[in-house]
Amino acid sequence: MDFKSTGGIKRVFKAAGYSMQGFIGAWKNEAAFRQELSLAAVMLPFAIFLDVSTLERIALIGVLALVLIVELLNSAVEAAIDRIGVEKHELSGRAKDLGSAAVFISLAMVIFVWVSILAPKYLF
Questions:
Q1: Which tens digit of pLDDT belongs to each residue from 36-49?
Q2: pLDDT mean over 82-107
Q3: Terminal Cα distance for the chain, rounded
Q4: Is the pLDDT of residue 4 over 70?
Q5: Of the candidates 43, 58, 63, the residue with the CA atom closest to the CA atom of residue 105
Q6: Could you say which of 27, 30, 41, 83 is the most buried, measured as most Cβ atoms within 10 Å of its Cβ?
Q7: Would you place residue 3 in the very low, low, confident or very high pLDDT band (cuts 50, 70, 90)?
Q8: C-beta of residue 60 within 8 angstroms of C-beta of residue 50
Q9: How far apart (Å, rounded) are the C-alpha atoms in residues 121 and 124?
Q10: Do residues 75 and 33 lie in contact, with contact meaning Cβ atoms separated by under 8 Å?
Q11: What's residue 72's pLDDT?
Q12: How far is CA 74 from CA 32, 55, 85, 99, in A?
């Protein structure tokens, strides 16, 4: 990997390229990311076209983005741990479990936010 440039537009383009490599790598190598991105792709049109306020729409879309962000970070932690070694170690297991717990909480937030916003409008 090249050394980081000190600034300017060249750095912005390089950073964007590295980000795209990250997205492509996550899509190719992480089944959970593919599943969560697919779920977000299905739910996003609903969030856009439902009759909700602007702040509610932001919340509906924001929690979908949060799941993807947390999953990317979890995948990064797992990749770093696997790079260090594949043998079982208590700290490696704890790091992976903590990442998984963060993903679980973000998914729970999707359910909570979507139900909190949509249930009063469409179920009651």
A1: 999 999 999 999 99
A2: 94
A3: 56
A4: no
A5: 63
A6: 30
A7: low
A8: yes
A9: 6
A10: yes
A11: 98
A12: 10, 28, 17, 5
Say how far apart CA 14 and CA 16 lie, in whole Å. Answer: 5
Question: Is a pLDDT exceeding 90 seen at residue 107?
Answer: yes
Burial of 117 (0-12, 13-18, 19+ CB in 10 A): buried
DSSP conformation class of 121: H
The predicted pLDDT at position 123 comes to: 87
Q: Measured between alpha carbons, how far is residue 23 from residues 33, 43, 109, 114 in Å?
A: 9, 20, 23, 26
The Cα 41–Cα 5 span in angstroms is: 35
Q: How many whole angstroms separate alpha carbon 81 and alpha carbon 85?
A: 7
Integer Cα distance of 78 and 70 in angstroms: 12
CA–CA dist 88, 64 (Å, integer): 33
Using a 10 angstrom Cβ sphere, with 0-12 exposed, 13-18 middle and 19 or more buried, the burial of residue 1 is exposed
Q: What is the pTM of this model?
A: 0.88
